[in-house]
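Lab manual, section 2.4: Encoding a predicted structure.

Procedure: take the sequence of the chain (347 residues), apply the prediction step described in section 2.3, and record the output as structure tokens. A sample record is shown.
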Amino acid sequence: MRIETDLKLGFKDVMIRPKRSTLKSRSEVSLERNFNFLHSTATAWTGIPIMAANMDTVGTFEMAAILAKEKLFTTIHKHYSLKEWNEFLENASTDFYNYIAISTGTGKEDAAKIAKIIEANPLLKFICIDVANGYSEHFVQFLKQTRKQYPDKVIIAGNVVTGEMTEELLLAGADIVKVGIGPGSVCTTRVKTGVGYPQLSAIIECADAAHGLGGHIISDGGCTTPGDVAKAFGAGSDFVMLGGMLAGHTESGGELIEIKGEKFKQFYGMSSATAMDKHAGGVAEYRASEGKTVQVPFKGNVINTVLDILGGLRSTCTYVGASRLKELTKRTTFIRVSEQENQVFTK
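Recorded output:
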């Protein structure tokens, strides 16, 4: 047993200090990024590096269709069938494939399923290997085998929260490492296991490790406001993945219900009892549920939320003088704070 005494920070612990700017308007800010990837032989990627999480109440085909129009990315959840994939991609444009990933676990059935989907839809460029615990040797071996099998694909792998494991996944074949253990709004890993890492510090440490090797990271979880998204980019994340912020919309999964005249949509973690009952026949005796199920007030069409997030991000850039999103991390100075906002009129 040992104790590390260095302070680790989350989004709530900091704000971004403003700096002089020559920008006259938020409209002058470009949020598009251009990335070449470490291992993949695929062409460079261009878009706005915000991602919908691969949860069946967020990362849906309907969500992808809307986000791709804005050049945002969707990691499609892994529970769609081969038939559903084929039908969805039947009329997809070539460019559309730049903004979606197929997700998979690390079991034999998972590997067989994505092989069939990719064989039927060879234009799929991105594979997201997604597990709660990216520190497993089995996970690393699955990643290596996937890289060997798909040398031309862009592989996303996670989740981890430390620099050394970020490096290991990149060396094992990942192009992009997904960072975050426990920060999600419907994740209970931290209270069930005592394991986790404050998200801002995780981003800073993992980004430093990844960029040293020519890799990239995704900040996955913990964002509740557009300001948090800006902080994630400011801390060095290349992509930011959103779950709860994109839940509850027309395009989100989850059942639409009405309670006392108000509409809600169900939102749950993928390690929750709800998810395991739906996809795995229940919670196995050897494990515990590590997610919660909530009712999110229905928010309407997701495009309105997307535009609000992008507007907030552009505003952040103007406050620090970054004309491009790429410049934000270089223009970011975080200050430690004990309060974030005046909540006198907050319900």
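Check your result against the sample. DSSP finds eleven helices and 15 strands in the chain.
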